[in-house]
Amino acid sequence: MIKKDLLRAYHNTTYRAFIRGEMVDIRIGMKHARLDAIAPWAFVSACNPASRRSDDNPERHQALIEKLGCMGYAFHPGIGVPDEEGWIAEESVLVSGMTEADAILVGREFGQNAIVVGEANLEARLVFCVRGSLDF
After folding, report:
1. Hey, which residues does 92 pair with through a beta bridge?
2. How far apart are the C-alpha atoms of 1 and 79, rounded to whole Å?
3. Is the pTM of this model over 0.85?
4. Would you say 46 and 112 are in contact if contact means Cβ atoms under 8 Å apart?
């Protein structure tokens, strides 16, 4: 179950991608016209499964990159930058052309609670990878 403070942390994060040297900041609930050309897209991390700190984040990130390559997806480096103190930025990727369904499957494979997805002309959304995930 995802608690209110964790949900707030997800919403209070800048999902930053680097596309051909240009920094693009993604926020949940906002439109991102710069990303319309690569939509649908997903912002995914393999770090800190179940939002618990992990010492093997570099290996997990490399495994994510290899997985996306095998799936044939193009991706851009990214980092999840938390607004709140006490949270650590997570190495991530912005995946071009990734469907929400594929993004959820990848998120589940890497133990993620949630991912961020977007489509052309629509607001970025937080999507949960685990069933029955909200606990209010």
Report:
1. 78
2. 24
3. yes
4. yes
